[in-house]
Amino acid sequence: QVQLVESGGGLVQAGGSLRLSCEASGSTFTMTTMGWFRQAPGKEREFVAAIRWNQENTATDYVDAVKGRFTVSGDSAKNTVSLQMVSLSPEDTAVYYCAADRGFLPYMRSARLYDHWGQGTQVTVSS
To answer: How many CB atoms lie within 10 A of CB 85?
Structure first.
């Protein structure tokens, strides 16, 4: 059974940085698409960033609100993905979830396409 384990959340002041990491274990298959979603109190889960690998290239996608501040990276051979977050603001406060799928997801922003999810890690940004 595939398990996604996130780490790196915590409390940080506005303007600070955090790095989230996620590892998919228990799978003999490579996760072709891995991403991050977040859910703030009283709001729906939203897409943050994702990365997708194939033989030709690596593709990434970001929600507009984090472009230029967050960077997604990973290692497909190790089934790991990270999210480097800088210039954090209180609006980034949420539970961040790692998601992964064996498939080449053409639309990485859709949560329903991912088969595997982590338990979430809390990110709190104080003003």
So the answer is: 24
